[in-house]
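testing teh design pipeline on a random one, pls ignore if ur not involved
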């Protein structure tokens, strides 16, 4: 059996300690590995229309009573990201599971939604711009989805699965509001 010289033992331990963090760096990194899902990303569907124009976080609003019934109008949540040097315009939203869609632009007018160059547009029911799917042709509950096609004036069209949100959007924020802020001064009561 061989033993290390007493002075070499601390050097061997130091070398081993230096190598351990390097082996941890070699573990899989989903952000660096293109195509792998990263936990904690957008809730809804994401899809590129072109290299510069993408629809992200697409969801249908959560129904107040737990289910969207046939014939109801359903609000859409999404973000449209334009990283290009030219603007575009969302001119139509269509699908087989609803009769039509109402598009409300930033100015509150109908007829389309401008997506400026190098900008993001957030579709939310609370105000313009917004998209409302009219006369739903099927009933939907939380996490069920329907295909929705977005048509752009220049970029063309893309179809995504739009799923119903799993909970109301303000449920998480209302929980945060009830949590008192941490105290910094222990004498303050």
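output:
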């Amino acid at each position: 059996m061989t033993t290390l010289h007493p002075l070499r033992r601390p050097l061997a331990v130091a070398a081993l300690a230096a190598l351990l963090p390097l082996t941890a760096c070699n573990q899989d990194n989903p952000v660096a590995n293109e195509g792998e899902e990263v936990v904690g990303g957008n809730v809804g569907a994401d899809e590129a229309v072109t290299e510069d124009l993408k629809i992200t976080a697409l969801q249908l609003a959560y129904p107040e009573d737990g289910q969207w019934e046939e014939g109801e109008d359903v609000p859409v949540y999404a973000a449209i990201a334009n990283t290009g040097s030219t603007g575009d315009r969302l001119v139509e939203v269509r699908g087989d599971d609803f009769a039509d869609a109402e598009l409300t632009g930033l100015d509150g007018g109908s007829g389309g939604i401008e997506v400026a160059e190098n900008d993001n547009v957030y579709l939310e029911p609370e105000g313009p711009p917004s998209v409302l799917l009219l006369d739903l042709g099927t009933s939907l509950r939380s996490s069920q989805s329907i295909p929705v096609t977005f048509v752009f004036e220049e970029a063309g069209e893309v179809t995504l699965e739009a799923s119903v949100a799993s909970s109301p959007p303000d449920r998480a924020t209302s929980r945060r509001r009830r949590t008192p802020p941490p105290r910094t001064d222990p004498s303050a009561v």
